[in-house]
Design goal:
heterodimer, A: mainly beta, B: 114 residues, mainly beta, 7-stranded mixed beta sheet, 11 strands, globular
Chain lengths: 110, 114
């Protein structure tokens, strides 16, 4: 079983739609969680950190459920510019390395 | 530009040759990480440094791979006797201990082994 699992998609949604991605992780002692965005042939860019209390940044909301070992990302009012791959990231306990999921591809259609 | 920089951006080499990549982190960042990414996959961890100390290496990092960060600033990643399976994007990231574990990535070096 992979340490971090994501549905690779693609998710094709119309502009203005709300879309949600989930990611599960296997190490219950994992200590920090992030969502990154990656455009084609570019480097990953930090979208947001994920906290147990949940956090929101504009149209983006991230949630962490430690009991069920998953994190989620919700994008409201999708824009064409949101089209990208969204990478789920987990840091295991006792280290600072990132464990990435395979990424979920999102295409927002006009 | 004060972000993470990597050189070269592209490298094409023949199987069996040695290659070296350089990463310059954000100036006050004391942790530096190397990852490798192949098409359709998320990045995979290779190794990381805190200042000049190499604190962790992945089992993926065979003895043909070596990384250094001699003065706790820039880092180099060398691959000896390259193989076609080494073709990938090599990403460097840095972070600042005092600001949690948010890592900032450079543009990567794309390696093609013929």
């Amino acid at each position: 079983r992979k340490e971090v699992e994501q549905d690779p998609g693609p998710f094709n949604v119309p502009e203005g739609a709300t879309v949600a991605f989930n990611c599960t992780y296997s190490n219950s002692a994992s200590q920090s969680f992030f969502w990154y965005r990656q455009d084609c042939r570019k480097e990953p860019k930090l979208l947001m950190s994920v906290y147990s209390s949940g956090n929101e940044d504009g149209r983006f909301t991230a949630q962490l459920n430690r009991a069920s070992q998953y994190i989620s990302l919700l994008i409201r009012d999708s824009k064409l510019s949101d089209s990208a791959t969204y990478l789920c990231v987990v840091t295991p306990s006792g280290t600072y390395k990132y464990i990435f999921g395979t990424g979920t591809r999102l295409k927002v259609l006009a | 530009d004060t972000g993470v920089s990597q050189n070269p951006r592209h490298k094409i080499t023949k199987r069996g040759q040695n290659v070296t990549f350089r990463c310059d982190p954000i100036s006050e960042h004391n942790r530096l990480y190397w990852y490798r990414q192949t098409l359709g996959q998320g990045p995979e961890f290779l190794t990381y440094f805190q200042n000049e100390a190499q604190l962790e290496k992945s089992r993926l990092l065979s003895d043909r791979f070596s990384a250094e960060r001699p003065k706790g600033s820039f880092s180099t990643l060398e691959i000896q006797r390259t193989e076609q399976g080494d073709s990938a994007m090599y990403l460097c990231a840095s972070s600042f201990v005092e600001r949690g574990n948010e890592q900032f990535f450079g543009p990567g070096t794309r390696l093609t082994v013929l």
